[in-house]
Amino acid sequence: xxxxxxxxxxxxxxxxxxxxGSIGQGLLVLVCAEPEDTEAVGEKLLAKILKLRxxxxxxxxxxxxxxxxxxxxxxxxxxxxxxxxKSGNRPGFTGAAPPALGEALYxxxxxxxxxxxxxxxxxxxxxxxxxxLVNDGPVTIxxxxxx
Length: 147
Description:
By secondary structure, this protein is of the alpha/beta class.
């Protein structure tokens, strides 16, 4: 499973001009399931995200997790994280899980996040979304957990 984390001061997702999810300080989590992924892989990825120390402490060092600072999670599905760009100019997406599996794993990831963290908002799987964010830092971290 692939994730791209962006530490944000605020972020929101709109679908057809309607806000469907928003957070203040926290992490925008763009997530993509791969064909071999399982719910257990998603749980490992979530554990890493929740404990990753990428928020500043009093000394300005990245020493705090999203849990430590009470930040929110805005989780958005993004199959393009699995883009294959080695040949040609048009990316391929066979590295992403098929839609039914991708949606099931995304929903399981969101459910696990909601069980483990108090502030979880989402986009909508497969929707045409507009993501607005204020990247804090900027801090952007790629993560990948393999099955």
